[in-house]
Amino acid sequence: MRIQQTSFCERINLLDTEEKQTVLKNMQAMQKHPVMTDAIEVEISDEGLKALRKRVNELQPAMDYTDPREMPRVETNEVEFDYYMTMRQMSAQEGYNNTEEAMESIMESYEILYNQIVDAHKYGDRLVSYEIMGDKTLTLEEDLAELDKAFERSLGDLQGFIVCTQTSSILWLDRKNRNEGYHYSEKEYADVAVTMMKLARKNFLTSFDSKNYQKGDGKWIVSDIIHKDTGFMADTKKLFS
Question: Is the dihedral of CA 93, 97, 102, 104 positive or negative?
């Protein structure tokens, strides 16, 4: 094995500007034209090479290999995710300035998709096709079940919206204009909002199966539930004031 050695400037005493310039020029010249000394012959025995390879292998992190064919199949639910993203897009288009508007927006988008699904199954099962899950036939019950899962995801977004608003209130509103009797970080407020949404969905489904149902009832159902809870209304006003 032959190892190349490169010489280097050693202990240069920089005394004045002229010498500094000289040293800089010499170093630049050395970088362009490195001076190579004669190669040194190094002999490594077979035992030494084996020991070196063994040491290198010990230092390298162990990597487990798994045959892709043996990996468990990942269950995906593209139908639910599709409904969830559609609900988010609908809510984003409308926008909202407080918890009440956010709840009404979610309920309204849920009702729209619910009606669309029912219409799609007017003549029987619905065939869907997605990139991962491929082709699949859904019954009306299965389709609506996926929408309900998307609705539950949207309630997570509602909680996130509330927590973000509460956090902002802690950072500036609570210091600047403290409202007595209300703690902006309390979790109970978000829990009440989620409970109201689940009740609104239940009431909507009851209304949908009745003869008196009219499109657009979902928004008014959740609004009625909110306004009947004076404590929740008061907390909402304080939080967004």
Answer: negative
Contact status, residue 138 vs residue 117, Cβ threshold 8 Å: no
pTM over 0.85: no
* Token pair in block for residue 186: 């309390």
CA pair distance 94, 105, nearest whole angstrom: 7
Alpha-carbon span 104 to 214, nearest angstrom: 16
- If we measure between CA atoms, which residue out of 97, 86, 118, 145 comes closest to residue 241? 97
- The DSSP-derived string for 36-89 is B---EE----HHHHHHHHHHHHHHSPP-----GGGSPPPP--HHHHHHHHHHHH
Encode pLDDT of 166-197 as tens digits.
887 766 554 555 555 455 556 789 999 999 99
Over the stretch 51-100, which tens digit does the pLDDT of each residue have?
766 766 666 555 455 555 555 554 558 999 999 999 999 988 767 889 99
Among 115, 121, 103, smallest CA distance to 216 is for 115
